């Protein structure tokens, strides 16, 4: 008996190669157009499609080449054209071209670049397989187009291997390392010094400033205009990319590079700084995940011209071949034309993307040394093209009729996602998602409503399953008591019905529970479900970025020495509290100085939420002191930092500590507390917050509970009450109110996480839409708030001079 019917087997044998070739082409097409979107959005669906296409594209092409090679040695079947295998040999170099991959994606993850040696081996083995397929069909009438296609395929595969090689971290670092600096000739100098001393000649060694070994470029000065042009934004982004790309591999920068960057960024407007960093991160993404960097070289441009010319020549030679419909199968001819036409179209699309990339504009139009120098004739065209990628800000009315400018750039024009995600602890305890502060635009209301409906339906299903599970447990408990009583009286029930009942109601759920736990551990199903249910999103607002920019700009003024720069970048709130000059500073300082970072993060997050829910919108509008912007900024950044800690552990791995354990202990205590106060199922965050604040804090929680539990729920309640006192004292005496203090503390907590995150994790996040954390990291580097600057004077040389030593 055949497992696969003979008819189906014949269809598979006839169409397997054809299907694989078409499938490979589809994967290449999807990758070339979808891959650029992954730096512009963090949608899980797009990531899943790209992941599938990227992995299957290589597998499909490799398997198809193997099938073609195997097919060349087979005897022709009855009914096939006599030279059909000759045409299949033409497909082998096409698949080699597909293995070269599109220009828009060479690596799915940063780790893929380290596998360049594997791709080099793949290039050699697949090239040999293609040659073998052609050799088996000797005297092939299609050898001219096959040869030209083979050249194109080898060039494309070589480009991919070169891109992976160049982006691997060790090679990336090697290219930026300067030749070793031996310094002054110490041995010769000391010999001369000893000789003079032996001759009783008065001499001493002094250090004098060494003349410049290289001509230094003039100081970078912002053009004296209201705003930078779109082309200048890209040019400055490219310049600073070439300077600061060493951050990725932990290189040390000179104090001149620090001063140049810091002085220039101090002159920028916040939006201009955002756009330059946006462009800079774009260049970093392209150098790590695409072929862009190697194509923008003389070798890369020349090889691409040869590859495209070979592809066109091969197509014309095949097209001019007479009697194709007689010599070859009609379906194979159609597939071959499809491969040629789509391949040429994709190459043209890649060429257009290449010509319109930021890299092209930055390379073709160099940054002027003199900002007032006359622009070249092509600059207006570049400015017009780049204007389509300009960030779009739209005035948005939110709660309390306040108007903010929010980032609303369309997805095809974005350079990053522009989204700030949030995860709220109290909302998670109550199994409800925190409401948005900024509603989406009108044209997205329908999609937002559909998403909210799906999430709400999904949430209701989970809640009903949980209720059903609880009901089953209660029924099981009652029935088991009855069954236990009956089994004592009746032996038949004890040895038949009771074991069967236990097996069904205890054994089967246990098996399914263990299976679910195993699946959850492998695929993190619960984490993905939590992201759908409880992660909120907010657009970046202009006033948020301006506040972050101005705070870091203010601190950069103090970072004149490495020690101070390190101290400023390592501040976790204490700098902001001392700067506020409040009477309550010392009481608040204990929540940042004497606690771990993850503990401080959870404390301030819960305290921020308690204060946020405690105040009414009407009260904020009537208050004449601090702005409502501080309240909303603190809320958004607080939820964002909790999102990073819980949902993005890789970004916080250096500072997370025992954050997961602390979060779980606090969650367990909060759920027990809310359940005991009958607010757990109400899903009312305001009432839950008031309930927490109603608990007396006369005695500190640690003095009652000890340190076995890592919960910080009621410590956060104490912090919230301390913050509320600021409005009664500091805010009324001309000092900062609690929301201004909170906003400054949150900037420091955000900056601390950004500066202590591994550089490779920042780069890895660029392929997932980017984060605000990445921008803060690079902005701190531009302001000199990093550990990688060698600020000590280095350009000096020793010299022997006459005189007493």
Automatic annotation (TrEMBL):
Keywords: Membrane, Transmembrane, Transmembrane helix. This is DUF4220 domain-containing protein. Residues 51-427 form the DUF4220 domain. The chain crosses the membrane at residues 20-39, 45-66, 87-110, 293-317, 337-356, 498-519. InterPro entries: DUF4220 (IPR025315), DUF594 (IPR007658).
